[in-house]
Amino acid sequence: MAIKLNGLTRLDCNTNELQDRYMGLSYAAKTREALSLVNHLADSVHSTLDKLYGVTNKLRQAVAAILADLLSIASQSDERLLYRPRGVADFKGQRIGYRPCIDALNGLVTLDLLHHKPGIWLGSHRQGEGDTARYRAKPALLELALRYGITPGNWRSHFAPAPRPTAMAHPVIVRGKRQFWDKEDKGKKLPIIKTDPAYIAAAEQVNRINTYMAPQLITGCKHDGFIRIFNHGDQPGFAYNMGGRLYSKASGVSYQNMEKHHRHDMRINGEPVVELDIRASFLTILYAQRGIAPDPSVDPYTFGTIPREVIKAWIAMTLGYDRFHSKWSDETVEKLIEDKGINLRKAYGIDTVRAAVIDEHPILHGWPHSTVRWQNLQYLESSAIIDAVEALGLRHGITALPLHDALLVERYNIDTASEILADTFRKRIGVIPVFKIKDRWPEKRR
C-alpha cells in the first residue's frame, strides 16, 4: 500500500498487513545452546562489518533478540514476515539500540541467512530504501539453529523475555478521524508537535508508568510497554482530549488482545489476577455530565423483557457511533450468536430495542444531535484509568494493567485498587462508578 507523505510515495509503511508481525526484539538467550548459537552468529555477522573492534555484547544481544523473533514467526507460518522500522528514533529508549540491530540485520542478510524485503521511498526529493523493512529466516538459518538443537517448535525453551524498557521511544500517538464504514481504518497517524505542553504531560505520564512496570514480573501473557493513542487529532478542538486509551505493545498478541480464557494463566508478581470492571462506563459518564450518580442497586442494562445482553449491545453500538443505527452490525450479530446464542436480526428488531432503551434512558434520546461523542467519553474514562494505574504503582507499589474500561490486578489488592480507581474516576468525572469484579474466565470454546 502506498502512502503520500510530503509529496513522496512511501511503500514501506503498511504495517497493517495481516500476514506480517512487528519485530519486538524483546527476548534474550537463556540456555547454553542458545548462547552458543548466538555467539556463532554474532562472530559471523561481525566478520561482514568494517569494524576495528571485536564483537560486542550489544551485538550479541541484538542477534539473540532478532533470532528469537525469527524463530517465533517461523513456528506459525512459512510465509509471514517480521517488519521493523529502521529509523534512529525508532530505537530511542529501547534495550536493543539502533546500531547493533542494524549491524545484525545487515550482517545476517549479507550471510544469506535472511529474506529481506526493503521499504521503498519514491519521489522527486528522495528515492531509495525506506525506514521499514521486512524479514524472514531462510532455510540455512533454521538448519544452523537445528545443529544447536534449536527449532521453531522449541525456541521458547531457549529464549526468555528480556527486561522491559523503562521508556517507550514514542509513548504518545495521535491518529486522525477514522472512517466508520472501513473496519480496518484506525485513522491516519499524524505528526506531533513535541513541544506542546499537553503532549509533554501525556508522554511523561506514560513513561512514568513504563518505568514502574519495567521490573514487574508479568507472566502468562505478553507485554513490553505502554503507549497512549489519542484520536480525532485532525478535528476542531483537539487538544489531547479525545480518545487516549493506554495500549500494551508486545512482540505478539498483548494481554489486552489475548482470548479471555487465557487470563486465568496470567500472574502479576506470581499472583493470580482479577478484573476490576467499571459497569456501564460510557453511560455512567453521560449521566454524570447531567449531575446524576449511578445507583449501585440498579443495573442499567436490565429492564423490561429484552435480554440484558441485547440492551448492552445496542447501547455500546450507539455510543460508539454518531447517530442511531438502522440495523444491527454484522460484528454485533455474530458476537451475540457466538456468546449467548441470541440471533438479533431474527428475535429483536433494532427499532424495538431502541424505543425500549430510550424509554428507560431518556438521556440517549438526543444522541444523534449531541456534542458529546465516543472520543470525548473515552478520554474521560481513559484518563481516570491511567491516573489509577499511575497512583497504584507509584504510590502504593501495586501493579495494575489497564484493560480498556477495567484494571487487572493481583487478587489480594482488589480492595485498594477499587478505592483508588473510585477516587480517580470521581476527580475526573464527578461521580463514583459501580464496579464489577470478575475472577472467573470463560472456558475455551470448542
Structure description:
The chain has 446 residues and is of the alpha+beta class. It has helices spanning 32-47, 57-74, 98-110, 139-147, 197-213, 281-288, 308-319, 330-340, 344-347, 350-360, 374-396, 414-429; strands spanning 3-5, 8-10, 21-22, 27-29, 82-85, 114-117, 120-122, 128-129, 132-137, 159-161, 172-174, 218-219, 225-230, 243-249, 267-268, 271-278, 400-402, 406-410, 435-438. The strands form five sheets. Strands 12, 15, 16, 17, 18 and 19 form a six-stranded antiparallel beta sheet that branches. A hairpin with a 3-residue loop joins β17 (400-402) and β18. The radius of gyration is 24 Å and the shape is elongated.
Which helices and strands occur, and which strands form pairs?
Elements: E1 3-5, E2 8-10, E3 21-22, E4 27-29, H1 32-47, H2 57-74, E5 82-85, H3 98-110, E6 114-117, E7 120-122, E8 128-129, E9 132-137, H4 139-147, E10 159-161, E11 172-174, H5 197-213, E12 218-219, E13 225-230, E14 243-249, E15 267-268, E16 271-278, H6 281-288, H7 308-319, H8 330-340, H9 344-347, H10 350-360, H11 374-396, E17 400-402, E18 406-410, H12 414-429, E19 435-438
Parallel strand pairs: 3-5, 11-13
Antiparallel strand pairs: 1-2, 2-7, 4-10, 5-9, 6-9, 7-8, 12-15, 13-14, 15-16, 16-18, 16-19, 17-18
Helix pairs in contact: 1-2, 1-3, 2-3, 5-11, 6-11, 7-10, 11-12
